[in-house]
Design brief:
The complex is a heterodimer of chains A (493) and B (205).
Chain A: H1 6-11, H2 34-46, H3 52-78, H4 93-104, H5 106-117, H6 123-148, H7 174-207, H8 211-221, H9 228-261, H10 273-299, H11 308-338, H12 342-353, H13 357-369, H14 377-380, H15 383-410, H16 425-448, H17 454-459
Helix pairs in contact in A: 3-16, 4-6, 4-10, 4-15, 5-6, 5-9, 5-10, 6-7, 6-16, 7-8, 7-9, 9-10, 10-11, 10-15, 11-12, 12-13, 13-15
Chain B: E1 22-29, H1 32-44, E2 50-53, H2 61-65, H3 72-95, E3 100-103, E4 105-108, H4 122-148, E5 172-177, H5 185-193, E6 199-204
Antiparallel strand pairs in B: 1-5, 1-6, 2-5, 3-4
The chains are: A mainly alpha (493), B alpha+beta (205).
Chain lengths: 493, 205
């Protein structure tokens, strides 16, 4: 389309984290044509061999997945006694991991739905793999309640299916709400992810060299041929899905928090839980997106599509949600004191200075203190620092769930019923193994599916504007659309 | 166009195997702006069986083509309302009422007494009603979108054209089908060429 002009060469050095008034920072760097986007994204799945690091990571993930299989197999043949659970602490690593993974899963839908409704164009660079991450995280999350029920062959009792006892699930229990919330969330996220991927699968189909690829991509592309009559309904459907997913994503972690908040237990029985859990979920989810995006963009050469500006924006979200989480921690303490309830007061002092003080302070330092560093732009735009900080946040958010669940259960109303929780090797193996499941799925996704939503990225390039830089053969003389980008202001979407 | 009969093994995509009838003509454009200008002219020329094919949704093209708004949102609303109602009935039946109905097998409701709460605890039923609303609406959105689009349709005459493969990459196409009442092979080709495309190609059915 365009040849190299001095103007576009200037673009090669552009720092798109700088905001210039009256100008929109470019979200795609060093690319003037749509086919460059296609080539960059498709190269990953079309390459004969993946980068060496991919094989190493995949081998490691498979190893951990094997560990998960062993731990779950051992649990099923022996019973939940292989975990360190005891009488007051009947939920520990299992539910901690469940809440942790569901939380991670929130970033994908937030990016694809909420940022879509807010017309945040930078979402296009990261939404596809964030959505993939969501689905894999929800798979990990779903594993835990499934195996936690003990006799897994009765897991179907979770659903309202007629059974031999002529009994139904108890719909007044938040645990059952959770079944519906998480399974709906998984289904809708999968639909969203797949629907978004259909046009890109068609691109892979049209470029496929081998018969197998042609058939596999062709089958899943459903015969998509870019028809504008199809795009019209597709865009409507996408908007509807975004509008449906937005309240859904907020409801899911709210319902997860009801598992705790509707109980009478000191430390759980608080009204701040739903918003606090949702903020925490977004916080941890974005941290995981950064953890995954940083190596992925290096490894697969996607730095021009997942630019520093995308990472900078995500770090800002981490900062904001980190502040919300910090506020929630403080408010919990305040309410515990202000309520005048002796048990509440004890529960919170016990969290910070009791037997699990170390877990509490790991949580506070990782979730409240480290994200504050993101106030500084130099830190927000430094790849190594943000990678380390994102891992801190992941660790902190795991500990947050551990602290909430275990400290409240271990020391409740009656000192005679107190007990401490110590994890067994099966607890630890299952927790670590879940990362194996997650990374195995994620690495397979990176290798074989379009990691970036090509169609969506193309649509936000200045060249895609039929009235601007894409206005035709004689159109690109008057500026690349970089100088006077339009605000999507063509009225008729 | 081609009248040579080739054996199926020698067939390549884009080369019709049989002297089949014409599916239509496609015109290729380089930019969304060119496509948009051309689409307005095709619309004004009164064609009905025609389409644009683009690698991404081009804003404003719906108007340029004169596409009517889809009724999808109405169906989705209906599906959502059905979900709300279905979830209410499910919970009320299984937890509040005790009559027997036939749902594949004979099933009986069971009014649970939990913590002295009323059998019909509507507030406690709301989370599940909400989730099922979203579930029904989302499933309807996606299935109806593909259904209305006539997908999945794994084979289409346009896939015969090698040129057309760029429609999922970086080129913009207009296709006019032979079944259009206004379609006359020679005349329509002339018309498409007048729209200043990169190329015009005939596609066999």
């Amino acid at each position: 389309m365009t040849t190299l002009t001095p103007e576009s060469q200037v673009g090669r050095m552009v720092d798109n984290t700088v905001d210039r008034p009256g100008e929109r920072a470019p979200l795609v760097l060093n690319m003037d044509t749509f086919t460059q986007v296609t080539a960059t994204v498709c190269r990953v799945s079309e390459a004969e061999k993946a980068p060496l690091a991919w094989y190493i990571a995949f081998a490691g993930s498979l190893g951990l997945l094997g560990l998960l299989g062993i731990c779950i197999g051992y649990l099923i043949v022996t019973g939940v006694g292989v975990w360190g659970l005891n009488n007051p602490v009947m939920w520990a690593y299992d539910i901690t991991n469940f809440v942790f993974w569901v939380g991670i899963g929130h970033a994908g839908t937030l990016i694809s739905a909420i940022l879509f409704l807010f017309r945040q164009k930078w979402r296009t660079g990261i939404n596809r793999f964030a959505e993939a991450m969501t689905i894999f995280a929800v798979i990990c999350a779903g594993t835990f309640p499934g195996i936690h029920v003990g006799r897994v062959w009765f897991a179907y009792w979770l659903f309202p299916i007629p059974n031999q006892m002529e009994m139904w699930p108890q719909f007044r229990s938040p645990l059952l709400w959770d079944v519906f919330a998480v399974s709906t969330y998984f289904t809708v996220s999968l639909l969203f992810w797949y629907t978004g991927m259909v046009p890109d699968l068609a691109t892979l189909r049209d470029r496929a060299k081998g018969k197998v690829q042609q058939l596999a991509y062709g089958l899943f592309a459903l015969g998509w041929r870019g028809s504008n009559r199809h795009w019209h309904r597709y865009e409507r459907a996408y908007l509807l899905l975004a509008a449906l997913s937005t309240p859904l994503v907020l409801s899911v972690h709210s319902v997860v928090s009801f598992d705790f908040a509707t109980s009478q237990l000191p430390g759980w029985h608080t009204t701040i839980f739903p918003p606090y859990f949702v903020a925490g979920a977004i916080f941890s989810g974005f941290a995981m997106v950064v953890t995954l995006a940083v190596p992925a963009r290096e490894l697969f050469g996607l730095k021009d599509l997942i630019t520093l500006r995308h990472l900078d924006n995500m770090n800002k979200v981490i900062l904001v949600t980190g502040c919300m989480v910090g506020y929630a921690y403080a408010m919990e303490f305040f309410i515990a004191w202000y309520s005048g309830a002796m048990y509440e007061k004890f529960a919170f002092i016990n969290r910070a200075f009791g037997q699990y003080w170390w877990a509490y302070w790991i949580m506070v330092s990782c979730n409240v203190i480290t994200p504050q560093l993101f106030w500084f732009k130099r830190i927000r735009t430094s790849i190594p620092i943000m990678f380390v900080l994102s891992i801190f946040v992941n660790v902190g958010m795991w500990f947050e769930r551990f602290v909430i669940i275990v400290t409240s259960l271990a020391n409740d109303f009656l000192p005679t019923s107190w007990d401490l929780f110590t994890p067994t090797w099966v607890d630890i193996g299952t927790m670590v193994g879940a990362f194996g499941l997650f990374f195995t799925l994620f690495l397979l996704f990176c290798r074989f599916l379009p990691m970036i939503a090509m169609a969506e990225v193309k649509a936000i390039m200045p060249q895609a504007d039929p009235h601007g830089a894409g206005a035709g053969k004689h159109g690109h003389d008057h500026g690349h659309g970089h100088d006077k980008p339009r605000d999507g202001a063509h009225g008729h979407h | 166009m081609a009248t040579i009969v080739t054996s199926p093994t020698e067939t390549k995509p884009g080369q019709p195997a049989n002297p089949a009838k014409l599916y239509g003509l496609i015109a290729e454009f380089e930019t969304p702006g060119d496509l948009m200008a051309a689409a307005e002219k095709v619309r004004d020329a009164g064609y009905k069986w025609w389409d644009c094919h683009t690698p991404f949704p081009v804003h404003g093209l719906d108007k340029a083509m004169g596409i009517k708004r889809t009724i999808l949102p109405v169906l989705v609303f209906g599906a959502g309302a059905t979900g709300t109602f279905a979830a209410f009935l499910l919970q009320a039946f299984t937890n509040s009422w005790d009559f027997t109905i036939w749902a594949g097998v004979w099933v009986t409701g069971y009014p649970y007494l939990i913590s002295g709460k009323p059998a019909m605890s509507l507030p406690a039923f709301i989370p599940v009603m909400f989730e099922v609303t979203i579930l029904f609406a989302a499933l309807t959105t996606v299935s109806m979108m593909f259904l209305f689009n006539g997908l999945p349709q794994l084979y289409h005459p346009l896939f015969r054209s090698n040129r057309f493969r760029r429609a999922s990459n970086d080129r913009f196409f207009i296709s006019i089908e032979a079944r259009d009442p206004k379609f006359l092979p020679r005349k329509t080709e002339e018309f498409l060429k007048s729209l200043d495309p990169v190329a015009v190609e005939a596609v066999e059915d």
